[in-house]
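ARCHIVE ENTRY
Sequence with per-residue tokens
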Amino acid sequence: MKVKFCGAASTVTGSCHYVDTGHVKILVDCGGFQGGHDLEKMNYEKFPFDPAEIDYLFLTHAHFDHVGRIPKLVKEGFRGKIICTAPTRDLARIVLEDAAHIQEEDYKHYISKVKDKRIPRHVRERAPEEGMQYALHEPLYTADDVRLAMDLFETYEYASSVELSEYIEFRMRDAGHILGSAIFELWVHNKVGRLRKLVFSGDLGQPGQRIVRDPDLIREADYVWVESTYGDRLHPTKDETVLEFLSILKKAQEKNGKILIPSFAIERTQEILYELNAFYEGGLLDDLEIYLDSPMARAATEVFVRYPRFYDEDAQRLLAKGDDPFVFPTLHFTHDVDESKRLVNRKGIAIIAGSGMATGGRIVDHLRNHLEQKETTVVFVGYQVRGTLGRRLLDGEKQVKIRGRELQVNADIKSISGFSAHGDQRDLRYWLRAFGNSPRKVFVVHGEKDVAHGFAENIRKELRLDAVVPEMFDEVEIE
């Protein structure tokens, strides 16, 4: 079989793995690249395979870096089946519609600035302004392209083995990352007729998350693809994380400034709301007004409400008692841009808004308005890819440019890693240990280059498995 690494190889984003078994051609994920300009330019490059020849796309979950190029794939000829869980389908629709809208708006903004002007090529190809994801190109796809892509989705349940043809069978297991996230077990016949089992971890969650269940363990495989986002570190415990979050919020309240929480609309926002609800019910934070300033996060939360059967036992018990973990009296929703803008003069409030890495969305406007104020506290609750505004702030840059304006960073910048929906090194190693010595090879993907290589070495030493880190567009033959 031929395997090609078309994304998330020695980098964290753009997940896309191509397998040609000799009988069928498949993809696992077709994500968008996020980060610096060099990474985001890759979204516009030609796929290193013919989209029209792909039979199946297996979708592990609905984050942009796993689904973001699907409409482009369809636009360029893909007409196969997109296979995932029902929550992944519904969340993917929200993510892709939002991405199409952002692309169109960013491009309009860019065109309005350069209209009737001759701009040299070297200026035209410079990195776009902070907070502008797609400003230098025509949109990758439109809302119409998204609708066409959604017609190709087919949903299945966890744990049911499905034979797609005489050459391929699959089963989805719970990855514990976000609602509906899946590990894929694929049984395929290679071109000489031998049956081989391939396992793709997707993104693996850390055990003990508040809403989703723990990742399922797989007992055997011939070849394993494993993520490595946090393959070089250990998370604090959930109790430590929650106490740290509460402490940051209470100290920020004392300054009577803005509390800005850049948050991924899917899973992270819902988990933050879950914890804030617990703080409110426990009388720990009953006077802090919280504004969810993200239509996308609000829509994603509605999807969460539709699929309680995917929750873990604790969240299901809350629902059984009549407690909605995503609603409490001090939580408010903004419904349009005007409401969002009116928050600029409010003091002593917390605003949750996307995007989680401050690459676009309403959080960029709030940062632009408040980063220079010492009373502001910015709380990052997720991973920040190199090259993003979020990563630059966490790395301590004292001056940033946001939408044409140079800003001094006087705000208090905080980061809480324990809310991550990714497992840490110990969690990833525990998941791999369940395979015993069955894998012939482990491909370490979805991690920054140094982290992925460090984790691969850890796998070799601790688990005695053959682990390798592919580079982007590497092609290998597997038996």
DSSP finds 15 helices and 22 strands in the chain. The radius of gyration is 22 Å. The domain at 2-232+421-477 is CATH 3.60.15.10 (Metallo-beta-lactamase; Chain A).
